[in-house]
């Protein structure tokens, strides 16, 4: 297990909370005075992130402006797929790190369907989600993401297909526990997630882990 589950810097946690308060407050505001106050909170969140990161002010402001309604965490899904006791990993073109295939869940998809689709799109394998390994607080410390997220990792059965990289992945391979690459892809997959995946695969009676 990772020794520190909250990998986000304090300034990013503060900015996320301020942005969420701004978004939710704006949604329920009943007059222009309140809307102006909540709009200022969004500006403060942008200023905090801009001060401590390479993200551009205009891009952040536009991104925050797109968020409507009550603010909730985003959902990231991952598929843990095994073949001959080895775990499927893909190499991200973005940062060269390895991760279990996955990504943001799309609106309208069941979480399990989202994980199955991501494995197919990123790795070229048809899979069937069988159980939830864990639900995690995905703080997104790297690569930097402005929004808070939860991560759901599914244990999946391998049905067919062949290793096929995508426009997001450059390599697809299976690794045993001792072969796991040292360079993982930021918060997409951390050692904790891999350890839990092997534990769930080798011990089917283990309960789902959660933060």
Description:
The protein has 211 residues and is an alpha+beta fold. The chain has helices at residues 10-28, 32-52, 57-66, 111-123, 191-202; strands at residues 74-83, 86-92, 98-99, 102-104, 125-138, 149-161, 169-175, 209-210. Strands 1, 2, 3, 4, 5, 6, 7 and 8 form an eight-stranded mixed β-sheet that branches. Strand 1 and strand 2 form a beta hairpin. It starts with 9 loop residues before the first helix and ends with a strand.
Q: How would you summarize this macromolecular structure in one to three sentences?
A:
The chain is an alpha+beta fold and 211 residues long.
Number-wise, the strands total 8
The helical percent reads 25-40%
For the record, the CATH class of the largest domain is: Alpha Beta
Low-confidence stretches: 1-6
The major β-sheet equals: 8 strands, mixed
The fold-level CATH name of the largest domain is: Nucleoside Triphosphate Pyrophosphohydrolase
Beta-strand residue percentage: 25-35%
Q: If classified by CATH, what would the architecture of the largest domain be?
A: Alpha-Beta Complex
Please give the radius of gyration in angstroms. 19 Å
